[in-house]
Amino acid sequence: MIQFDEDSLICDLAETYNIYDYKQLPVLTVAVFSCGLKEDSRIKLKLSGQNVSLETLLLAGMSDKLSAIIWLKSKDAQSGRNKPKSIVELLSANSKSSNSDGSIAFETASDYERARQELIGGDVNGN
Length: 127
What we know:
This protein is mainly alpha-helical. The chain is built from 7 helices and 2 strands. Strands 1-2 form a two-stranded antiparallel ribbon. The mean pLDDT is 85.
């Protein structure tokens, strides 16, 4: 965990156990405290590849369904306009994010190359 994201681990240990300098503790004790962190702690979310906690994702899902139900009863739904955006999709975006101007940002060059190859066809190696 320390090698993956030390800053997140430090924040989680401070928030949960009031440990501000984990280096002063025995390694086994730090390991036990680290494993005992809640599933929605910063480090555990990062290790699992999630952006938000399961609770937040479930609440966003309920909000999306409610918005869809309300929209379906509107005049906009009859003409297919102004469909509400999905909060779950916005929260779940991992490697790329869409900006308000419609542009797409990538975290790494390999993410860009992968998306490029999907658009033009072929695999990432150019075949």
